[in-house]
Each structure stands twice: as C-alpha cells, then as structure tokens.
Amino acid sequence: MIRKILGVLKSPYPFDPSFLSLFLYGAGSGLFVALFFIAFEPFGFSLLPEAPRRAFFIGYGMATFLAIAVNGLLLPRLWPRWFREESWSLGRQILWMSWVTLTIGLGCTLLSGALCAFYGLPAHWVQLRTIVLDAFLIGIFPITVINLVNSARLLQRSARVVQEANQRLERPDRPLTPAADVPAQVEIVAENNRDSLRVALADLLCIQAEENYVRVLARDGKPAPLLRSSLGRVERQLHPFSPRLFRCHRAFIVNTAQIARVDGNAQGLKLTLRDSPAVIPVARRYVADFRRLIRGL
User: Fold this and answer.
1) What is the per-residue burial (b if ≥16 Cβ within 10 Å, else e) of 112-132?
2) Which candidate among 23, 56, 113, 158 keeps its CA 20 to 30 Å from the CA of 274?
C-alpha cells in the first residue's frame, strides 16, 4: 500500500510557471476565497461590524492572490533546478501547494493584525498558529483531491492519444515520403541572413532550440553547426513543410515521418524516433494539434 502511494506521488505532473497561468490561478483562487467568506462568514466573522468584516474578506482574497503570485514568480527563479518540469511530480505539486497555503495563512495573519489595529479590534483575536493552521487544514484536503483528480484526467487523456497515435503509426499504408509539392531540401537561414544550413527533408529528424540558437539533428548523426535564431523564426521559415515538420514543444520541431512510437504521461507526450535514440517531448499545449495531425496520417 505504501509503495503504491509513493508510486503515485512520484508520477510526473505538469508545472506551468508562466505569468498568465499564475495570474489566472491566483485571481481565481483569491476571488473564490473572498466570495466564500462573504457567503458563509465563518469563524465568528458575522459578529463584527460590516466595515471591518468586508475589509477582512476582501483582504483575504488579495492575500491569497499575492501569495500565489509571489511564490510562483519568485521561487522557480531562485531554485530553477527544483522546479524543472522534467522532474516535477504529483508529490512535489502537493508539497508546493501546501507551502503556498501556509504562506496564504501567514499573509492573512499579518493582514488580520493590521486590520485589528486599524479598526480598534482586540489584538488577542489574531493568533498566528490558529490562522495559519486553519488555512492549511482547510486547504490541504481539496489541494490533494484536486491534484489527484487532475493527474488521473491528464493520464487518461494521454493514454487515449497514445493508443490512437500508435495505431495510426503502425498502419502499413502510412505515407513516409513527402507530397510532390513539398521541397526535398530544407533550408534554415540564421538571423543575420547570411549563415544557413541545408538538409534533405528525408534525413531531418528534428530541430532543437538551445538558448539563442537552433541545432538540426539528422539521420547521419553528424553534429550540425548551431545557427543563431529563435525556434519561432525557424518555424515560420518552415511553413511550406507543415505539417510534415511539426512544432511540438517550445524547444523542438519534429519530422513527423520519423516518429516510430508515442508514449505519454500527465505532463504530455514523448516521441521516439526511428533513426535516433532521442526522445522528443510534446508539450500539453500542442497535444490537440498533434492528435489532429496523427489522424491525418
């Protein structure tokens, strides 16, 4: 039983530290907290006058938003290795959200003390241990349940796509050669418009972003020179080869004719290529497009 629980906690889980994701999650959580207190007025808040009561409720919503935003923006930049999605798991996600809940409780404690002083309320009403512990105990159960349900949902979605994709890839009539109107040579031009690289479409495995450069991986295994360019710029250059060359990740464009097998987990999909030991990730944002592409094979 313990091994099974540990196995579940070690299973991969998505982590998205983008500003938009943090803003939406923080704003939604803050709004929920404020509306919850306004609707139910728990912990004896109904005994307070209306003005401080509303200030507490709105303040708790703001404290929730700020705790999520500050933690999400600051900590992944201070400890980037711990927050890498490649090593992120369901257990880390629950632990992370538990920490965020504790900081929400601390923020609410500080806010409560300031509001009590401002409105002349008894100072003993604010107890650090009580508020922080209440916030943690109230939050830990739904945090665990929500993340478990979401992990199961993402795994189920990945499993459906993996099964469908592998069935398509095993078809004997799968086209492995480009259409007649697709150029046989791929040319990538660097940002300076002078340096360039040519490779046969049939030999191209994938294109990988490396900071401000891109690297082309081909079947011959020879290391190709780096070209200074963003992957987005390369993607626009390769539009005539779409969907044969497919942007599947923020760091990868893959030759779909080279895909041998598809695997997946809650973080997304993994592509095994025919002529390379490399495993190419498919980010969650590209899974729907990849599924439509596979259906067209």
Assistant:
1) bbebbeeeebeeeebeeeebb
2) 158
Q: Where are the domains of the chain?
A: 2-166, 172-295
pLDDT for 231? 93
Token pair 């690289």: residue? 197
Task: Specify the pTM.
Answer: 0.75
User: Has residue 235 got a pLDDT over 90?
Assistant: yes
Distances (CA, A) of 129 to 105, 106, 208: 9, 9, 50
Fold of 172-295: OB fold (Dihydrolipoamide Acetyltransferase, E2P) (2.40.50)
Taking only the tens place, the pLDDT of each residue in 189-207 is 989 888 888 999 988 999 9
Give the residue among 208, 219, 199, 221 at the shortest CA–CA distance from 274. 219
**Which among 219, 152, 224 is positioned nearest to 188, based on CA atoms?**
224
Please report which confidence band the pLDDT of residue 290 belongs to, taking 50, 70 and 90 as the band edges. Answer: very high
Q: What is the 3-state secondary structure (H, E, C) of 273-293?
A: ECCCCCEEEEEHHHHHHHHHH
What would the two tokens of residue 71 be? 């933690």
